Amino acid sequence: MNKKMTINSIQKTKGERSLVMITAYDALFAKLFENSVDMILVGDSLNMSFAGRKDTLSSTMQQMIYHTNAVCNGAKNSFVICDMPFGTYTNKEDALKNAIDVFQQTNADCVKIEGGKDKAHIVEYLVKNGIAVCGHIGLLPQSVRSEGGYKVKGRDTQEQLKLIEDARAIEEAGAFCMVIEGVIAEVASEITSCVNIPVIGIGAGNGVDGQVLVFSDMLGLFEEFTPKFVKKYIDGASIVKEAVKIYADEVKSKEFPQEIHTY
Ligand code: KIV
User: Is the previous residue joined to 257 through a cis bond, with omega within 30 degrees of 0?
Assistant: First the structure.
């Protein structure tokens, strides 16, 4: 069994080795992942792949706490990150109240919030009050409606400078690491060298300090769409459908259950 990571051991990996993060939303999958990864993210992406909603915006604190508990129960030896849902950290007081709920009602090790310089004061307030924070800059899924879609960031100089400013602000505010999503690889690489905390990429190339993928994407279980940055390690949807079809056929033909499945 791997030794559980802490914010200190995570930070020490910078420049030494690549960090592995994956999402999980329940105990079953969290347990399957725990020995291969450094961190498990209970991402609000669960609102799309598990709750079937069109984006992450309707995710709630109650939902995140429920799923974070399930993940912590399944992967007791993993460093677990709970995503703060849209609208739950618009001001310092709400952010702290909601983050305290996460810490008191689950065994999560930190929370993750989306935003750069504009959210630095929130990160600073949480950290000062004993909450470990993972930042999230670049493409922010919680801004999908206000931005009119999922837009890759860092294509022009203005965006590049803003990203560097965002990364530095989040680091200065006290985040122990950050996720960078949907950013031109060269820019993500430059940002990684501008800060002293680990930068975990998703759709941000190979010049970062680690990678995160949404498990239902990389296992090929989520069929709605597959972003360019996702590598499907198995065609999970086909494997599951095929298995369930065989089961259904065997039930209909009375081939299942057999003697060995019977008391
Ligand atoms: O919600 C999520 O799964 C995330 C990842 C995309 C990083 O925030």
Answer: yes
